[in-house]
Amino acid sequence: MRHISSKLIHGTTGKEDQQHRSLKTPIYQTASYDFESAEDAEKAFRGESDAYIYSRIGNPTVTELEKRLALFSNADNALCVSSGMAAVSNVFLTLCSSGDNIITSPYLFGNTWSFFAKTLKEFNVEVRFVNLENPEEIEGNIDRNTRAIFMEVLTNPQLIVYDFKAISDIASKKNIPLIADNSVLTPYIFESKNLGIDIEIFSNTKFVSGGATSIGGTILCYPSDKWASVPKLAEQYEKFGQEAFYKRMHKEIYRNTGACLSPNSAFLQLLGLETITLRIDRICENALRTAEFLSKSEKVQHVDYPALKGAKYHDLTQKFLKGKSGCLINVELDGKENCFRFMNNLKMIKRGTNFCDNKSMIIHPASTIFWDTPAIEKALMKINDNMLRLSVGLEDVNDIIDDIQQALGTL
Ligand SMILES: *Cc1c(COP(=O)(O)O)cnc(C)c1O
């Protein structure tokens, strides 16, 4: 069996274009498609052929990306959508009805938190924010209307690594679908299928896009019999069994939300997949070296990087994440003023809010991403004024460390 990096370069068939033998997948920049006959059109609409109909429903460039992502993760079905948030919203609109509840942690990507706490709430879907590090608390919150347990694989910016086996065991025992957001690490580091996860989502905008070239999202579906117990999917389960979730999402929710990925973005993300393992390996090496350097500086009060020896989640990182924890490092300095001075004195590292980019960048979360979060919630989310979030990039690690060293020298 070939290594995943070879599979991501060559895809399922080893051929990207049957017609002209182009070595890159063509960008099918079209809204609709020509049918050979009226009969063919009828068949396509009835789902009796795989002819393309309209690019909101399906597009060949996007299909190739979906096939490549299914290879990446060993998922049965992959659906690409217009953003990571489109992936989040499509999943919960497929699963939940009024009166249902879902269980998650308060440590979430900002818009996911807002989707749960505000958008879903208004449709009478209750989101229970619990401590996912406490199995009893998870179990105690499950009832007959619980439709999912949702977790982020590495929370940002808290950098928590859960005991995924413990959470997965509860989800299996209670027959509750388990959903993971793997944006920060991707299937290269965290293998959802082996951990009994039913649905995985991620933002292609991060590592898949190949250095922040485009916005996109993915929903990966693993075979599951849990759909039998979800009232909204009961009918699909009778027809499609373990694919019930994918079928309803693909046929209905995806089309109705109109959250399709553009073929141009799919092309960029296919290119991104060709180098993704290389980039992740280098970024993890760079980040570990950078975290080691920071942990030795006396100007730094605390460094948090899960793969670093002695870090709180080091053992769980070894156990579930192949010893790798991606690009994010939390750095605590003595007060907000020092954080700002340090940021302003960086010469190469950019001040910006993205991560998994080829370029290193840094942000002060308390005054930006969380600027209008009430103090009590900030404390709950472990966001403090002393903390910087550094996203390590692909530059030569000595240049990254030199830049940090000279900026620390100004404090
Ligand atoms: C970036 C991100 C998202 C949202 O992705 P977009 O492509 O920006 O919509 C969701 N979850 C996590 C964990 C993310 O990092």
From TrEMBL:
Pfam families with a match to the protein in the record: Cys_Met_Meta_PP
Keywords of this entry: Lyase, Pyridoxal phosphate, Transferase
Disordered, as annotated region: 1-21
GO molecular function, one term: O-acetylhomoserine aminocarboxypropyltransferase activity
One Gene Ontology biological process: cysteine biosynthetic process from serine
InterPro entries noted in UniProt: Cys/Met-Metab_PyrdxlP-dep_enz, OAc-hSer/O-AcSer_sulfhydrylase, PyrdxlP-dep_Trfase, PyrdxlP-dep_Trfase_major, PyrdxlP-dep_Trfase_small
Keyword Transferase: yes
Reported cofactor(s): pyridoxal 5'-phosphate
Residues recorded as bearing N6-(pyridoxal phosphate)lysine in the entry: K206
GO cellular component: cytoplasm
Keyword Ion transport: no
Signal peptide: none
The family this protein is said to belong to: Belongs to the trans-sulfuration enzymes family.
PANTHER family according to UniProt: HOMOCYSTEINE/CYSTEINE SYNTHASE, HOMOCYSTEINE_CYSTEINE SYNTHASE
Protein name: O-acetylhomoserine (Thiol)-lyase
Organism listed in the record: Natronoflexus pectinivorans
Taxonomic classification: Bacteria, Pseudomonadati, Bacteroidota, Bacteroidia, Marinilabiliales
